[in-house]
Amino acid sequence: MKILTASQIKEADEITIKNQNISSEDLMERAATQVFNEIHKRLQGADLPVKIFCGIGNNGGDGLVIARLLMEHSYNVKVFIVNYSDNRSPDFLSNYDKIKNLSHNWPELLKGEDDFPEINRGDFVIDAIFGIGLNRPLEGWVAKMVNFLNASSAFILAIDMPSGLFSDKIPEEGDAVIMANFTLTFQTPKLVFFLPETMEFVGDMQVLEIGLDRDFLSKITPSAQLIGRQEAQNLYNPRNKNSHKGNYGHVLVAGGSYGKIGSIVLATTASLRTGAGLSTVFIPKCGYEIVQTALPEAMVLTDANYEMLTDIKTDLDADVICFGMGVGRDKSTVETFKELLKETKKPMVIDADGLNILSEYNELLQHLPENTVLTPHPKELQRLIGEWTDDFDKIRKVQEFIKKRKVIVVLKGAHTFIFEQENIYINNTGNPGMATAGSGDVLSGVIAGLISQKYEPLVAAVLGVYLHGKSGDISAEKLGYEGMISGDIAQNMGLAFSDLLSEKENGARAD
Ligand SMILES: NC(=O)C1=CN([C@@H]2O[C@H](COP(=O)(O)OP(=O)(O)OC[C@H]3O[C@@H](n4cnc5c(N)ncnc54)[C@H](O)[C@@H]3O)[C@@H](O)[C@H]2O)[C@@H](O)CC1
Ligand SMILES: [K+]
């Protein structure tokens, strides 16, 4: 699903209004009706107090339409106008009249702190104060109003965006932003919904299609893309019946050191469970029995050294090399990694200490094969590209880095971001149970397993992150966030694939 900027959304609105020969008020009615349908589906006519806070722009206009539709269905609705300016939008005004005609009363005008209404714990608050039109931080009593709503512990549903949240920048410390429990957003999610610094304002999120111009949407270059089930299905290559293990490639997993052989077991298991035809590990001697015992399906090559990698020598013709898990940063390991980088033309996946070595010995970066997949978590990324001021600055810096180095960066997080050239892909699977030792090792193995099966590195990264998250979700369903461990994510990869395929047969929509 495409993620558009506020100006792209405004353009889409305008083109839709023109091409569909409708008024902007019609579009507002359409959008707000979608919101009403969602609310009605969930509340089913329940008699709880619904308190709707409307601004005076089009976000407020949406709120007024939602209020009218709820009133028409006999909900217990109270409408408050957060009257921060007299500059009311035309569509707000005509819906303001419609509310008056229906309820025979003007909604309550709020003009300052003294007007704040009572909000109780069980109230259902709808935030329609500001949407994508926000262009400066909230000030004065309006900021206080937002803080007041946040402090109320009522359930808050934000319309389009939590009020106070910008679509293109991070709020400053102390800025007032609605902390929504749920956000119903129009047509396209906004980038800030997925950034670590702003995602907590959004709560759970659902996108409502409001029928914007299809042609415009299909042609526009998005600022990022959200990867759900449908997108992942489109990336999947079905297997040919007439095939053998040679068709699915050979992964070489190189890494490990004394006490850290488990990371190799995890990555290698994941590569095989993702469908690699063959997996060979290259490890220090101390890991020989561990890997042979834990994973009889893997083949094992050992370094001359007992504790660490010092000389990765093999004439094995692997299709992809996965390097770095548990490998440490000894000088001799750095040297052999350097040699490996210089010699190999194979696609590579580099994780963990492999990344730390690249950060410490920057000169190695020039030897990375094109389209190498780097899989840092934020700390590893920071070592690699330096500090950033906020999440938008981070995105800019990653994009500069990948442009210079011609690599793919998989930035792990609650929403993992995949950066390739100008493109950003944001993953929508996964859960907090995946914050557990070794889950990154599993991800590297999954991506390598897909590359070995001839997926392009970018496709392998995007599909791999999706499947890894899905397997994490399946593991969490079975074992809970606390109980799942990363070995479960590797073990359940098959279920993640079957989930993908069963949905494909049903033709279901992306999540
Ligand atoms: N354009 C359309 O046709 C549609 C718009 N829709 C709704 O319209 C929203 C955008 O509406 P608007 O562009 O009117 O903008 P908003 O309703 O988000 O904001 C209203 C106005 O407030 C002013 N403002 C910005 N920051 C402020 C601040 N800190 N303090 C005081 N005033 C401030 C701006 O002049 C802005 O235009 C969307 O988020 C969505 O909810 C939907 O109805 C769908 C269709
Ligand atoms: K809002």
Automatic annotation (TrEMBL):
Primary role: Catalyzes the epimerization of the S- and R-forms of NAD(P)HX, a damaged form of NAD(P)H that is a result of enzymatic or heat-dependent hydration. This is a prerequisite for the S-specific NAD(P)H-hydrate dehydratase to allow the repair of both epimers of NAD(P)HX.
EC code: 4.2.1.136, 5.1.99.6
Entry coiled-coil feature ranges: none
Organism expressing this protein natively: Autumnicola lenta
List of residues binding (6S)-NADPHX: 58-62, 131-137, 160, 326, 377, 441
Cofactor binding note from Swiss-Prot or TrEMBL: Binds 1 potassium ion per subunit.
InterPro entries hit by this protein: Carbohydrate_kinase_pred_CS, CARKD, Nnr, Ribokinase-like, YjeF_N_dom, YjeF_N_dom_sf
Classification of source organism: Bacteria, Pseudomonadati, Bacteroidota, Flavobacteriia, Flavobacteriales
Positions contributing to AMP binding: 412-416, 440
Name assigned to this protein: Bifunctional NAD(P)H-hydrate repair enzyme
Domain of life: Bacteria
Keyword set, alphabetical order: ATP-binding, Isomerase, Lyase, Metal-binding, Multifunctional enzyme, NAD, NADP, Nucleotide-binding, Potassium
Record's subunit section: Homotetramer.
Record-annotated YjeF C-terminal domain positions: 228-500
Classification via PANTHER family: ATP-DEPENDENT (S)-NAD(P)H-HYDRATE DEHYDRATASE (PTHR12592:SF0), ATP-DEPENDENT (S)-NAD(P)H-HYDRATE DEHYDRATASE FAMILY MEMBER (PTHR12592)
Residues in YjeF N-terminal domain copies: 9-218
Family: In the C-terminal section; belongs to the NnrD/CARKD family. In the N-terminal section; belongs to the NnrE/AIBP family.
Entry cofactors: Mg(2+); K(+)
Residues spanning the signal sequence: none
Sites where the protein binds K(+): 59, 127, 163
Catalytic reactions on record: (6S)-NADPHX + ADP = AMP + phosphate + NADPH + H(+); (6R)-NADPHX = (6S)-NADPHX; (6S)-NADHX + ADP = AMP + phosphate + NADH + H(+); (6R)-NADHX = (6S)-NADHX
